[in-house]
Specification:
The chain has 15 helices and 37 strands. The protein is of the alpha+beta class. Among the domains are: 189 residues, Distorted Sandwich (Hnrnp arginine n-methyltransferase1), CATH 2.70.160; 127 residues, Rossmann fold, CATH 3.40.50; 128 residues, Hnrnp arginine n-methyltransferase1. The strands form 10 sheets. Strands 9, 10, 11, 12, 14, 15 and 16 form a 7-stranded antiparallel sheet that branches. Strands 24, 27, 28, 29, 32, 33 and 34 form a 7-stranded antiparallel sheet that branches. A 5-stranded parallel sheet has the order 21-20-19-22-23. The longest helix has 20 residues.
């Protein structure tokens, strides 16, 4: 069912520093009287603008956090998952029929009711009593209204508590223990939303011994994989610099087991040439929810045989739910190549598949016997692969080198991308010589080391983040470049003129900044370049010298489901929930969202086109940059949104993209290491005749705020 996650579980935090801008809130007591006069009860929130780098203070509505949580609660395709909904209904019907066949009444407890769907299914299927709990009050109130609107007010009792707070007894929340528990407390990792402690508590305090849970049980599957591509998302690889030594990672980094946090992906969208199975899919773990006979911490070992000679880099994981006791109704999250429905498998984003990197990448021969282990705690899974002479890893991997805390998996892949690195090396070779003084403005970048290897006499790298700086210093030292590469713990804006007189011949950037969420947030480099203008030598080279903001109109196969209202859900009217979440999203959501579009197929409805251009060889202008234009549609379809990205011009011949690889064709191929921006269109306009309709666009860059405002509209040609 719909879930709002309340458990901030430290064991599952993946430290996504690269995806989060600095946000903090201060007490109203700390703000000045003028600000207090704006709203005596509203929180004043400080945000670092990801484009300008400036701290900005915003007075939020006192209910901002609540409203934002409501908006997020519908930010998935979950309620549009027809297979999930229908199979939950079948499981509930079978459970109620089974209980009544024993001559007993059916008493249902729905944990985390959300819209009230499972509770209403239970009532409609003949339950004698139904109690539904929902800890998030705005959603709980909506559930009460939805239950009443659908005619179940007298049968379903909605309680706004966590299940662990419920009481049982004559004056309790439940008058008796329940004998049926329908619940959807699962995520991509199966256990990450707290399914294990939820079921264990329910069995101990809320359920009868002969109860039936829906789903009845779950099975975790795994497949050992060789994938140099995915390995590049986990380990820093050496970079070849022509006519010089390679740039190598420190030994501590190569030995590091990495972070245990799950790497969730739409594996069905991963090209088959990017991985090779080492084993068949393996049945690793079983959880019987109806019995609740599992423990908070456990695991299993499975013997397997290698299908080929290769190296075990990672494990693919998925799971299936047995919705009924007979195991006849199965809900699977398997990728398409092993899913029982193949390419017709339902698309989901609330349940994807997971990649777990192994503590060590073991070489195997074809036919070799392997032991694959899985371990779990309350909220996490982890795996290891070993032969009979090795010892299994039973403790969760923990990053010891710091890089897996500082960098995301996509950032690792970006830094390891040979074609991208070669473009930077080629551009740097043209401008670096033995008299070059270089300054790098990027977060955790290897460009300073590349410039030093190419012969620059001195390289400075701005690294204001202490964690990133520590990791980069270790890489600098591992490559014996301490004398040439100096890490500076300041931003470009903080670098004072009275500090060491840097005369910069070459200002270089990827540009990549951990505070950026959207591709155009990398325009922060332009603000840094402007702040450093007084330090640039005459004729200094700026690399990249410019950028283009590019776009294409797209009909998405599934991504639109993130925002689409539900309306009628398995015959139940849930428009009250739609109204609540749609209003909340309107109040809190940005118009553009970041997404890895390679995971979300779509069809282009226009050619790709330039929205705006930026000249980094000049300082930021004082006046806004405004553009307008039109682009014809090339095919009919539903225009769900506009995909937007940045192309960086390193020099006259070399471009690095964060978006579309090549021109828009029937199949869009996206850069996998960057998130693209998506501007979703309201009402999803239908293009009936591409010859009579076109896309009108406006874009405005505001130098003072660093914001870019977009307006797109389908108009007649």
């Amino acid at each position: 069912m719909l879930k709002v996650q309340y458990l901030l579980n430290a064991s599952r935090l993946s430290f996504k520093v690269q995806q989060v801008s600095s946000i903090f809130t201060i007490s109203s007591l700390a703000i000045n009287s003028k600000a207090m006069a704006t709203s005596s009860s509203a929180p004043l929130t400080g945000r670092v603008n990801p484009t300008t780098g400036k701290l900005e203070w915003v007075v939020e509505d006192e209910n901002y956090d609540y409203v934002q949580e409501i908006a997020r609660s519908s930010y998935t395709d979950m309620l549009h998952d027809e297979e999930r909904n229908k199979k939950y209904l079948i499981g509930i019907q079978k459970a109620i029929a089974s209980i009544k066949s024993r001559g007993k009444e059916a008493h249902v407890l729905d944990i985390g009711t959300g819209t009230g769907l499972l509770a209403m299914m239970s009532a409609q299927s003949g339950a004698d009593t139904v109690v539904a709990c929902e800890a998030f009050e705005p959603i709980g109130r909506a559930a009460r209204q939805i239950v009443a609107k659908n005619g179940f007010k007298d049968l379903i009792k909605v309680i706004m508590k966590r299940s662990t707070e419920l009481t049982v007894g004559p004056v309790g929340d439940l008058s008796r223990r329940a004998n049926i528990l329908p619940a959807e407390v699962f995520d991509t990792e199966l256990v990450g939303e707290g399914a294990i402690p939820t079921y264990l508590h329910a069995h101990k305090h809320l359920l009868t011994e002969d109860c039936i849970c829906v789903p009845h049980s779950a099975t975790v599957y795994a497949q050992v994989i060789e994938s140099t591509y995915l390995e590049q998302c986990h380990k820093l690889q050496p970079i070849n610099v022509p006519d010089s030594d390679d740039i190598i990672p420190p030994s501590r980094m190569t030995r590091c087991e990495g972070a245990a946090s799950v790497f969730d992906l739409q594996l069905s969208q991963l090209s088959p040439d990017l991985f090779k199975p080492i084993t068949e899919p393996l049945r690793m773990l079983d959880f019987n929810f109806s019995k609740g006979d599992f423990k908070a911490r456990g695991g299993n070992r499975v013997e397997a045989h290698s299908l080929r000679k290769g190296r075990c880099h990672c494990v693919f994981m998925w799971w299936e739910l047995q919705m009924d006791q007979a195991g006849e109704v199965i809900l699977s999250t398997a990728p398409t190549w092993v899913h029982p429905d193949g390419d017709k498998a339902p698309w989901r984003d609330h349940w994807m598949q997971a990649v777990y990197f192994l503590p060590t990448s073991t070489e195997v021969e074809k036919g070799q016997s392997l032991d694959v282990t899985v371990s779990h705690d309350d909220y996490s899974l982890w795996f290891s692969v070993f032969n009979s002479s090795a010892q299994p890893v039973v403790e969760r991997p923990i990053c010891q080198c710091g890089a897996h805390v500082v960098w995301s998996r996509q950032r690792f892949a970006m830094m390891n991308q040979v074609s991208r690195n070669d473009k930077f090396i080629s551009a740097l070779q043209k401008v670096v010589n033995s008299s070059t003084t270089c300054m790098s403005v990027s977060d955790g970048s290897l460009l300073p080391l590349i410039a030093a290897r190419l012969g620059a006499c001195q390289v400075y790298s701005l690294e204001p983040n202490s964690m990133s700086r520590k990791v980069m210093q270790e890489i600098v030292e591992a490559n014996d470049l301490s004398g040439k590469v100096e890490l500076i713990p300041q931003t470009a804006q903080d670098l004072k003129l009275e500090d060491k007189e840097y005369q910069i011949d070459l200002l270089v950037s990827e540009p990549f900044f951990t505070s950026g969420l959207l591709p155009w947030h990398s325009l922060y480099f332009w603000y840094c370049r402007t702040a450093l203008a007084g330090r640039l030598a005459e004729g200094a080279t700026i690399l990249p010298c410019g950028a283009r903001l590019r776009a294409v109109a797209v009909q998405f196969e599934h991504l639109w489901k993130f925002h689409a209202p539900v309306g009628d859900l398995e015959g139940f009217d849930v428009r009250i929930f739609d109204d609540l979440t749609q209003r909340a999203a309107k109040d809190t959501d940005a118009k553009e969202e970041p997404h890895h579009l390679w995971e979300y197929p779509g069809c282009p409805l226009t050619s790709d086109f330039d929205l705006m251009q930026f000249d980094f060889t000049s300082c930021i202008p004082d006046e806004p940059i405004n553009v307008t234009g039109e682009i014809p549609f090339v095919r009919p379809g539903t225009c769900h949104g506009i995909a937007i990205w940045m192309d960086f011009q390193l020099d006259a011949e070399t471009t690095v993209t964060t978006g579309l690889l090549g021109s828009a064709t029937d199949k869009l191929e996206w850069c996998r290491t960057w998130k693209q921006g998506v501007h979703f269109l309201k009402h999803n306009p239908i293009i009936e005749d591409e010859k009579t309709q076109k896309l009108s666009y406006k874009a405005s860059f505001k130098p003072n705020s660093g914001n870019i405002f977009f307006e797109f509209q389908v108009v007649a040609r």
